[in-house]
Design a protein that fits this description.
By secondary structure, the chain is mostly helical. The chain contains 15 helices and 6 strands. The strands form 3 sheets. Strands 1-2 form a two-stranded antiparallel sheet. A two-stranded antiparallel sheet has the order 3-4. A two-stranded antiparallel sheet has the order 5-6.
Length: 410
């Protein structure tokens, strides 16, 4: 009995020693890989899409760390960047890009398909956006938790609060308001889910949201779209006759343009509303070309280029460049808009991109954030848009840069 007991203790001790030894080796190997990653040079022979992607992965080994976050969060900007890397995976076949977004989803979504810190009843349209990455992840992994998460986000849209005219509120805390931003957050997801799981029965409703903001935020003089529309006309920032915000904001126009080209992916050729969305895209393209700076970029408040301290803003310029390029590549826009897009991309690279000695790429002059209402109150004035912080490598600029580079094969 004592002999058996001693043998058992000896076996347990050996297992423990082997486990600790293996753990130390793994930790050492992991640290070695991390150090190699930090010291690696990103070659300039790669295309700009990969150079930016590898730079971000190098700075933030986990996607949830982007923007120097210290806690995990389901975030529309991170979702946008991971989506751009899925597109990069599609053209390169390199697993590192697909896995970056998959690991993010795995971290945020538990085994039951619950999204960390997500609350459906917030009715925040921003929370839909990161769900775009789940379609390909579920298709590849067949893990049911990702399908559950997709269904949860679709359920939000099913019960999402709407304006009297039928448009999604931007958030519960912004009653009866539609922002251009929200079209990008919600409509491409809505269209793809409806096409893949619901036989496209709601595509008329998808198009309806674009029509509402076209009809109510389009400025006939400039051809640009005001940042938002308050159907109730109760907000202090809202025009008391039209309900529109007082100014145009570049990134809002970028959100709108990207929403159009990405939503069109899921409209069948014979759908009666597809041409309407294409017409909206052409109208916008014509307008924004007029406001393109000689550098190829666009200003934060695009119709006031000479007003100080207006500046050439990165994220909106990347978004418009991407939308014009994709629109032309898909045949929605005339081919000459590829020239406009290439001019935009040249401006981004020449004026806004900085490259370290080790090849790491940075994008400068990104507006941190902008909105309307809230506390502290944001009045939508020119001065307000100038007051928001201007950052380097803010996530609003990362995904659109990669997408633009992919579309232009740059």
């Amino acid at each position: 009995m004592t002999f058996k007991k001693n043998n058992l203790l000896r076996s347990i001790l050996i297992v423990c020693v082997l486990f600790l030894s293996n753990s130390c080796k793994q930790k050492k190997q992991s640290q070695t890989n991390l150090n190699e990653n930090q010291e690696a040079v990103i070659p300039d022979s790669l295309k700009w899409s990969e150079r930016m992607a590898l730079s971000v992965i190098k700075r933030y080994p986990e996607a949830w760390q982007i923007d120097d976050r210290t806690e995990t969060k389901w975030d529309y900007k991170i979702g946008m960047f991971c989506l751009s890397l899925q597109k990069l995976y599609d053209v390169t076949g390199k697993d590192i890009y697909f896995n970056y977004g998959k690991d993010y989803a795995d971290t945020i979504i538990n085994s039951k398909g619950q999204i960390k810190n997500y609350k459906l009843n917030d009715y925040n349209i921003d929370n839909i956006n990161a769900g775009k990455i789940l379609f390909d992840i579920y298709e590849t992994t067949q893990n049911p938790k990702f399908l559950t998460a997709l269904k949860t986000l679709r359920k939000q849209l099913e019960t999402h609060l709407r304006t009297p005219s039928g448009g999604f509120w931007h958030k519960r805390i912004y009653p009866n308001q539609m922002w251009l931003d929200g079209l990008y957050m919600g409509q491409p997801f809505y269209a793809r889910y409806n096409t893949e799981f619901e036989n496209g029965e709601k595509l008329d409703d998808v198009a309806h949201h674009f029509k509402l903001l076209h009809d109510h935020t389009l400025d006939e003089v400039t051809g640009l779209y005001f940042h938002a529309w308050d159907e109730s006309k109760q907000m202090d920032w809202a025009n008391k006759e039209t309900g529109t915000a007082p100014n145009f904001w570049l990134r809002a126009l970028g959100w709108y343009a990207m929403a159009l080209v990405d939503t069109l992916d899921y409209f069948p050729e014979d759908h009666k509303k597809k041409q309407l969305l294409i017409d909206y895209l052409n109208q916008l393209a014509e307008a924004i070309e007029k406001y393109q700076d000689e550098t190829g970029l666009w200003y934060q408040v695009p119709n006031m280029p000479d007003k100080e301290p207006n500046y050439l803003e990165a994220s909106g310029s990347c978004m418009l460049t991407y939308a014009l390029a994709k629109g032309a590549n898909k045949g929605y826009l005339p081919e000459n808009y590829l020239n406009v897009a290439n001019k935009g991309f040249n401006g981004i690279v020449n004026e806004l991109i900085k490259v370290d000695d080790n090849g790491e790429v940075h994008i400068t002059q990104v507006c941190k954030s902008a909105g309307l209402g809230g506390n502290p109150y944001r009045d939508g004035s020119f001065e307000y848009y100038m007051s928001e912080p201007i950052l380097t490598d803010n996530s609003h600029g990362l995904g659109p840069f990669v997408l633009a580079a992919i579309e232009l094969n740059r």
